[in-house]
Specification:
Blueprint: H1 21-43, H2 53-61, H3 67-84, H4 96-106, H5 109-122, E1 127-134, E2 137-144, E3 155-161, H6 168-171, H7 175-186, H8 189-209, H9 211-221
Antiparallel strand pairs: 1-2, 1-3
Helix pairs in contact: 1-3, 2-3, 5-7, 8-9
Amino acid sequence: MNIESPAMPYNFADLEPSISRDTLVFHFLRHQRVCYDRMLAMVRGTELERLTLIELIRATERNPAQHALYRYAAEVYNHDLYWNSMGPRGGGPPSGLVGEHLHERFGSYDRFVRDFTAAASEHFGSGWLWLVWRSGTLEILTTSNAGTPLVRGDVPLLALDLWEHAYYLDHQNRRSAYVKAFLEELVNWDTANRTLAELVAGEEARVSAHPRLVAESSIRTAGLGVP
């Protein structure tokens, strides 16, 4: 099996008082761990067992007969990013590459906070809130239930769980209070910065290795043709 067992990147009590130890223990053991165990049982002894988690998500999403497996795999991935999107002593505006691109895309951190909070509030039912990298810029989007942006070709940088079990013990049905605590006290921008730095480095390496191919591709995309 090429998929490691899920693990928390910090102690269960490390996010208190923003998120309680009880919430994290319940969330990790009764949700992500259960999804992992069910996913493992479904792939054991099959050709799917050799796939990485991301490969498994993309392969099963395309097959309606495997959607139960897709949902379990996606929830394992989504939760891994969610845990790493938070940390002790987190919160506040980002610096580094994400800070630069966030200001370029939204104009200000305050505008990003308004858009991020509005997206969470407007999302109906269970799902996920994401900050993703798409076509050279940052975008905010939501997915329903176990949905993940990986299958859209986007690169997730941050994930926030919008299922009620993620916040009900601490905030009851006040999703906006949960999102506020995430942004002000929990968000770990280091995770997003590391992912974005790897993406930018990869793009620069491709340009350096194949400058003519990149230029020709850009021309074709613009519909101008190549001489």
